[in-house]
Amino acid sequence: MTLCTVLAGGASLRFPGGKLSSSLLGEPLLLRVVKALEASGVCKRLVVSTSPVALGEVEAILGDAYDLVVDHDWLPCRGPLRGVATVAVSHAPPEIVLVAGDMAWLSPSALEALVDGARRRGATAAAPMWATGFIQTLAAYIREPWLAVEACMRRGPLARPSDIYRSSSRPVIVGSAHLGDSDGRLFMSVNTMEEILRPRPDPPGKGVVVASEASRLHRMALSKGSTSPAGGLVYYWMEAQWYKDAGVTHLARHAWQDYCWALHRAGHGGAASSRFSLMPCRSRSRGA
């Protein structure tokens, strides 16, 4: 059973009046996203994942027409990944089609193309990528939803949605142009009213990357790092280099951040070894 999941747990702090409630072409943004999922025909069932802080807004928009799942506060991860992990725990679906509730221009045909392409390529996870090498981690086909729970429990507040793809056995990153994205907007999330009125998306990506080897390196890094802080260093570096060479800038940066973090835990401070350096270890910041 394919479970479609809409992530609607953000506090919308940069959006006056509530982002999910904002009217776009006459209806609330969240409702537009839900309708796009329904119209795509990829769902056997649809749930909306939310948080205590956003629950009131989501209920006001959707009423009792949809199944709402509130984030489990015992899960040690944060943000969107906690929402995915909560759905994986509460519903145990064999596969998830995931979207964020703030994708203003999401289209049913783009979702169909993402899911159909993922299945055709034998993907265990698939997500769209822009020409900049950044991927939309919150628009995805995920055939191993339990990986969200594993990342959450293993890495706690350091975990990111991208950990799902990096751990998946056959991740496929698809240039969004292959999914009908003509101007880069289809998978764009919005955080401010300005982004709705004057969107400035990255240009659509054109390549397709099957990242099974990078996934193997990531799993090796996790395995070796579980026994020794320095154990995963070389594998994180190799993973970062693989994604860099493949043009997947987003995951290359996350692998490099993990390399820097492992280096720090091994007692080497913020100075990266010149033998492995791709860039300076200046930050351990986390992103999606």
Overview of the molecule:
- With 288 residues, the chain is an alpha/beta fold.
- It has 2 domains: 2-210, Spore Coat Polysaccharide Biosynthesis Protein SpsA, Chain A (Alpha-Beta Complex); 217-288.
- The chain contains 10 helices and 10 strands.
- It has helices at 29-40, 55-62, 79-91, 108-120, 146-155, 162-167, 193-197, 212-225, 233-246, 249-268; strands at residues 2-7, 23-24, 27-28, 45-50, 67-70, 95-100, 125-129, 140-142, 171-175, 208-210.
- The longest helix has 20 residues, at 249-268.
- The two termini are 26 Å apart.
Write the layout of secondary structure elements.
Layout: E1 2-7, E2 23-24, E3 27-28, H1 29-40, E4 45-50, H2 55-62, E5 67-70, H3 79-91, E6 95-100, H4 108-120, E7 125-129, E8 140-142, H5 146-155, H6 162-167, E9 171-175, H7 193-197, E10 208-210, H8 212-225, H9 233-246, H10 249-268
Helix pairs in contact: 1-4, 3-5, 8-9, 9-10
